[in-house]
Amino acid sequence: MSFLRTPPGTALVSLACAAAGVIVVASYVPRHAPLPAPLVLVVLAGLFWAGAAWRGRRLVAGNIARPTLIAAAIAVAFLELVFAYDGTRGAPLALLTIALVLVALDLPLLISTYGATL
């Protein structure tokens, strides 16, 4: 588990947890999804992201992170529109929104810190 000692490794675990949370909730659309398991995954993703952001705060390359964040934010906005259009409302939509925002924050952190840790 030495990859958890690096910011990209921690960001990758956060990305995996957030993506798994999105997949679990999205697999139930348009029915109501059970929320405890995805909620735990999203909370774990947030904690891992905070750890990765703290560890990689000096390693983030702004010229790589900014365009990546913009592209990820646009993709997340489209996904959010798809879920809203499909009729997802309430707590599942809020959980999806938080998980997708974490995905959008993980990608620039992962990509911009990876080269600095080689």
SSE map:
Elements: H1 7-26, H2 36-55, H3 62-85, H4 90-114
Helix pairs in contact: 1-2, 1-4, 2-4, 3-4
Keywords:
4 helices, 118 residues, flat
Concise structural overview:
Helices cover about 75% and strands about 0% of the residues. The protein has about 120 residues and is mainly α. The relative contact order is 0.22.
Structural commentary:
- The chain has 118 residues and is an all-alpha fold.
- The protein has one domain.
- Helices cover 75% and strands 0% of the residues.
- The chain is built from four helices and no strands.
- The radius of gyration is 15 Å and the shape is flat.
- The model has no long low-confidence stretch (mean pLDDT 89).
Quaternary form = single chain
How many beta-strand segments?
A: 0
Q: What does the overall shape look like? A: flat
Query: What is the string of SSEs from the N terminus onward?
Result: HHHH
- Decide which structural class fits the backbone: mainly alpha
Largest sheet: none
Number of domains: 1
Unreliable sequence segments: none
What helical percentage do the residues reach? over 70%
Mean pLDDT across all amino acids: 89
- The first-to-last residue Cα distance is 17 Å
Question: Beta-sheet strand percentage?
Answer: under 5%
**What Rg, in angstroms, do the CA atoms define?**
15 Å
How many helical elements? Answer: 4
